[in-house]
Design a protein that fits this description.
heterotrimer, A mainly alpha (about 260), B alpha/beta (about 270), C alpha/beta (about 160), B: about 270 residues, alpha/beta, Rossmann fold, six-stranded mixed β-sheet, four-stranded antiparallel β-sheet, 10 helices, C: about 160 residues, about 30% helix, phospholipid transporter activity (chain A)
Chain lengths: ~260, ~270, ~160
């Protein structure tokens, strides 16, 4: 490879920066057009139901199983640590707060990016490469309305529901381990949890987090599919990008949201 | 109104650039109503770009694209989608919706754009499928069809709304001789029976020449020549002669532009 | 027919989500519907509320009868004012009841324990418990204990 002069390096860096900004702009216009633009899309309710099924219902299994195991592990670890301070009845509050504030929204969003996000990107990319999107446009149906918008809405709706189901299953798994297996007194397990978990501070903040994550993950997934190079190589690259970008976005946003919600400033 | 009603499509002084590269420079194309028009040219000459300009999937850098008396580049996004109901496009791959069966694929434009009752939609779909000879395949999914059948179903879908203009993108590529013969017959038949304007974008010389009433040859950012198939055969332009006869070398060189062969070999040291 | 199962599946999914939210609200965070109507407010002033937090339990004879809803400083008396909401069902607390801040276990949570007085007058909404016992501060206790033993040594 030819050696680059310093000026050329700077120019490359600048070009990369411009590319990033342009992609951001393109994806924002894409989002606004898909959600706010007008146009015929056929039976939009039916389309939404169909997408809720493939995005939400199909992700349920992995969410429930992961939630169950994460709750059980949390309970086990928490019990071991707390019992050395003689306060193992606090294991309920620990499991609940950990799940509601952090693990529920974050892990559910990561799993969602892997399960539903990658599928969305691959599906839309495939439609693009087989000219189905162009073909829709030629029939006089805006693919942004017919293909993109229902998928976006399905993702926005599914994510908070999945995160809440994740937390509930996790807490239930935690209770099972703590109460039935480790012998924590059931009454103090729940009452400790109830007295320390606040509906507005913990439950609602967690739900707000998952709404934000659902928005970002779905947006990234659908945009990557729509914007990909319509070849098999391009689709696989876009799918990888979806999982990587979505995961990073979730973790980064989680820090910011946590600082805003629970930080004291 | 800028377009003569005699023409279904009229490109006036259209230029198109991709990046810094000119694809078309000030070309004029007129497509009369009710005819089969061939748009031909070697691969990479911008035939598909021309098709996308007519279908308004791309906007020209300069010039006017008149379709049925409307200048497409001036339309808004939603007006454009309305406009496209008058056009049918048959894509190279067929582009059937893979999650719908044959019936739903053909019914799709009707369901979206009309409020017809189900029985009537069913009748129309059956008629369109009968026209392409695939009424028996009504319950199959797209992945159960052969390539030629996919294209015919896509054709049935393209004519579902009775468009006035039908555009075929490379309809003959990758078809066996029988399927090709069927398509050639269908294109001519539909054109005459429905009185629509057909635009066939292709580089398959024999097939296109056999059905087209008039042919445009594009290449090198220009319209190289135009005329009926027999006129083009007799053309004295060397470029057209090379294309019509399929000569390997000519005005379109066999060799991609390169430095002198001798210098390249010796200079490697 | 396939549409039907799809719709039912999605419907169940939405229901499961709502059920999850309700479980989180009622079972996990112990939110009770219309809590303001079924409770009444009682105030108590403590010299030191150290460690007591909003949503701490209020108990009587070990049974939870309410919770702490607010803690603030009374500017005039320099004491901590604790607002408790007590279940309406327990409407027979005598006026001279005692409120003390207790600890569950050595390092556990702080909560308020109320022990019954003898008066016939009962606490009304907005009433105040005057007889209070502040939080036991471990450092003070240890300090006092050390001081005592030093004093004893000196007096010998």
């Amino acid at each position: 490879m030819r050696k680059r002069t310093p000026i050329e390096r700077v120019a490359l860096l600048g070009r990369a920066g411009i590319d990033v900004v342009a992609t951001l702009g393109r994806s924002s216009m894409f989002l606004v057009r898909a959600l706010l633009g007008r146009g015929t899309s056929g039976n939009s309710f039916h389309l939404l139901v169909k997408q809720l099924h493939s995005v939400g219902v199909m992700s349920l299994a992995i969410i429930v199983v992961s939630g169950l195991f994460i709750g059980m592990v949390l309970s086990l670890q928490g019990f071991n640590i707390l019992s050395s301070y003689g306060s193992e009845q606090a294991v309920g509050q620990m499991v609940a707060l950990t799940l509601l504030r952090e693990l529920g929204p974050v892990v559910a969003a990561l799993l969602f990016a892997g399960r539903a996000g990658s599928a969305l990107t691959a599906e839309i990319g495939n439609m693009k490469s087989t000219e189905q999107l162009s073909s829709l446009a030629m029939i006089g149906v805006d693919p942004l309305k017919h293909i993109v918008a229902p998928r976006l809405w399905a993702g926005f709706i599914s994510m908070p529901l999945l995160a809440m189901i994740f937390s509930v299953v996790g807490i239930w798994g935690g209770a099972m381990v703590a109460v039935d297996w480790l012998g924590v007194y059931e009454g103090s397990f729940w009452s400790n949890m109830q007295s320390s978990v606040s509906f507005t501070d913990d439950v609602l903040n967690g739900v707000i987090k998952s709404i934000v994550f659902g928005f970002v993950v779905t947006w990234i997934a659908v945009f990557q599919g729509y914007d990909c190079e319509p070849t098999s190589e391009g689709i696989s690259q876009a799918t990888t990008r979806t999982v990587v970008y979505a995961s990073l976005a979730v973790l980064g946003l989680d820090f910011i949201l946590t600082a805003l919600m629970f930080g004291d400033f | 109104m800028g377009a003569d009603s005699h023409y279904a499509v009229e490109l006036k002084n259209v230029s198109f650039k991709r990046g810094d590269r000119d694809i078309f420079k000030n070309i004029d194309v007129c497509i009369p109503r009710g005819k089969v028009i061939g748009i031909m040219g070697p691969s990479g000459s911008g035939k598909t770009t021309l098709l996308r300009l007519i279908a308004a999937e791309l906007k020209p850098s300069a010039g006017e694209v008149w379709v049925n008396g409307v200048d497409l580049p001036t339309l808004s996004r939603s007006e454009l989608f309305d406009m496209r109901k008058q056009m049918g496009v048959l894509f190279q791959s067929g582009a059937l919706f893979t999650d719908l069966d044959v019936f739903e694929n053909v019914a799709f434009p009707l369901r979206v754009h009309t409020k017809l009752p189900d029985e009537m939609i069913r009748d129309i779909v059956l008629m369109k499928l009968q026209a392409v000879g695939l009424r028996g395949a009504i319950d199959l999914m797209p992945d159960e069809l052969s390539g030629g059948m996919k294209r015919r179903v896509a054709l049935a879908r393209a004519i579902a709304l009775d468009p006035q203009i039908l555009i075929y993108d490379e309809p003959f590529v990758g078809q066996d001789p029988i399927a090709m013969g069927v398509l050639v017959r269908l294109i001519r038949l539909l054109n005459d029976a429905l009185g629509i304007t057909s635009i066939v974008v292709s580089h398959d010389l024999a097939e296109t020449a056999s059905i087209a009433d008039y042919i445009y040859v594009v290449g090198n950012t220009q319209v190289l020549g135009q005329g009926t198939p027999s006129e083009l055969m007799k053309s004295d332009s060397p470029r057209i002669q090379q294309f019509m006869q399929g000569a390997a070398d000519g005005p379109v060189p066999f060799h991609f532009p390169a430095a002198s062969y001798r210098d390249d070999l010796l200079g490697a040291r | 027919m396939q549409n039907r199962t799809l719709e039912v599946g999605v419907g169940l999914f939405l229901l499961a989500g709502l059920l999850a939210l309700m479980l989180l609200a009622l079972r996990v965070s112990g939110l009770t519907m219309g809590s303001s109507e079924d409770t009444y407010k009682v105030y108590a002033y403590f010299d030191n509320i150290a460690g007591l937090t909003v949503r701490s339990k209020v108990t009587m004879a070990g049974v939870t009868i309410g919770k702490v809803v607010a803690i603030d400083l009374d500017r005039d008396s320099y004491t901590g004012r604790v607002t408790m909401s007590i279940d309406k069902e327990v409407n027979n607390l005598p006026e001279d009841s005692t409120a003390s801040i207790l600890t569950a276990g050595l390092l556990g949570e702080k909560y308020i324990g109320i022990s019954v007085g003898g008066e016939e007058e009962v606490l009304k909404d907005g009433g105040t418990i005057h007889d209070t016992q502040s939080s036991l501060v471990l450092e003070d206790l240890i300090g006092k204990f050390l001081l005592n033993s030093v004093n004893k040594d000196e007096s010998k």
